[in-house]
Amino acid sequence: MRGHRPHVDGLGVVTLVGALLGFVIGALIGFSSPGLSTPVLLPFAGAGAGIVAGALIVLVPGTFRRHRDTRMRAISHERIRAAAHVDWPDGIDLAADPPPRPPRPDRFGV
Question: Which of 22, 33, 100, 105 could bond 46 through an S-S bridge, CB–CB 3.0 to 4.6 Å?
């Protein structure tokens, strides 16, 4: 039996790493500045920037991939539609009402 690899949330991992790196970078910059609020605010601002950067790194290529897949699906759909219309008899309208059916005799003979 093969080992089952658990699903890893790529966006979650990248945003966590981005937040940690941003927090560390913000802390290093904040502690080296002379202001009192800078060491408190810059780590969190860096964490936010890291989350945004990580999310962009993951989501932008996925968006391009989904767009490409949608375009390829539309192209293959058009090919199938074009192939279905080859040798199609002209003058048949499938949307038109069908001709009326002749009346059926009563099933019970009455």
Answer: 22
Residue 41 has a pLDDT of: 86
Q: CA-CA distance, 25 to 46, in Å (whole number)?
A: 7
- Dump pLDDT digits (tens) for 43-88: 889 999 999 998 888 888 888 889 999 999 999 999 998 888 777 7
Q: Say how far apart CA 57 and CA 10 lie, in whole Å.
A: 11
- Cα separation, 98 vs 92, in Å, equals 11
Smallest CA-to-CA distance from 45 within 29, 22, 28 is with: 22
- pTM of the prediction? 0.54
Token pair for 54: 């990580």
Residue type at 42 in one-letter notation: L
Q: How many helices (H) and strands (E) does the chain have?
A: 2, 0
CA 85/CA 79 separation, integer angstroms: 10
